[in-house]
Amino acid sequence: MQKKKQSKNFTEGRLLSSLANLAWPIILANILQTAYQLIDTFWLGRLGANAVAAVSISFPILFLIVSLGAGLTLAGTVIVSQYKGAGNENQVDYSSSQTVFVIFFISVILAVIGYFSSAPLMKLIGAGPEILEDSVSYFKVSSWGFIFLFMFSVFQSLMRGIGNVLLPMYIVLATVFLNLVLDPLFIFGFGPIPGYGVPGAAVASVITQGLSALIGMMILLRGKKGIKINFSQMKVDFSWMERMFRIGIPSSLEMSTRAAGMTVMVMLVTSFGSEVVAAYGIGSRVLSLIVVPALGFAIATTTLVGQNIGAGKIKRAERIGNLSTKIAFFGLTAVGLVLFFLAEPITRFFVPDDPGVIRDGTLFIKIMSPSFGVLGVQQVLNGVFNGAGFTKASLLISVFSLWMVKFPLAFLLSNNTELSFVGIWWAFPLSNLLAAIVGFIYFKTGHWKRRTIRYRHREF
User: Fold this and answer.
1) Which keywords does the record carry (predicted)?
2) Is 21 within the bounds of a domain?
3) Overall pTM > 0.85
């Protein structure tokens, strides 16, 4: 009884209040998680533009490796939310145990691969001699954090699937404050603790990630917050894994496609020198922070759509998608307009003493910011498709956005026009707009609803 009180069923009641109650803790938790990167950038900026560039160039590869397993954690959210909506608590616990079991082994494999491939990967992506050593060191330390990062990601995903979104937020809040203290401590050193420079930022993040993962797993094992995992259920179940991979692999590929696109974009940016790389890194971090509200609404939408599909309420799931799309578009458009006018002070905050980086970073933010609303639409519609278990739709939209629009445009505009590297900046809003249009048209066709009805009859 105590276990059930810790989770919520969102198959009834007002849509706006359900969406708001789910979304704001997720948004805040994502902002706090993004703060890891912003805190790193702030302190590393005190070491100079090369330190920022070293981390910026390694981030897309880190995101690529993490994405290979992150889609499977999303599969856990979808499956658990649907069983929650169907009122099957036993399957909620069993699916959670299986998710933890599978993701743990995947995280260990990715950690080992990341560590031993760090040097060739950084050379492949185009790290120059002035940043190669720091980027490799940062990447090696960060790789060992994959295990902790994935375990906490599983905890977050499972809690979100049952509607318990406040608890992960509190844990993230505590660890970000800890990271705020540890970052300068390990970057610059203090007393008996030596300063590690760029890799010190990774050391601080791994420590905080380890603590959050430990807390999350202890909560799941105790079983008093809505889910109880059991070691006895952590065994190979091929039929369950087949379902997890059917939902999760397209999502992993979608995230990996985005990460690969980011990697290729960085390779294109590096051809213009470290100053442009640093400007791109600052703009990318601002973008990652602004995308957070869209991702928050997308994850909340996934949970709501999943629970309502589990309960057989397909029309209510469609209304959730319509409402989330409107909120994301108008809300992020307003935020984008504010950022347009604050672009220069934001860039100067990260790299206060480099006029070239300030100029280029400011222009990047100004070009991107008006398109944040349509970016929000794309993310929320992905949340609808994911909640319905139709993760292939999100994959196809991402492939279209990145590989058919963004990168070709960035390459052509930067190498064949007088825009030079500014052509890369313009590829962002254009690809955001086209991807949102494609996603919205597909959503309105209703194919995902017909497919969901067939899928539900088979699984439930």
Assistant:
1) Antiport, Cell membrane, Ion transport, Membrane, Transmembrane, Transmembrane helix, Transport
2) yes
3) no
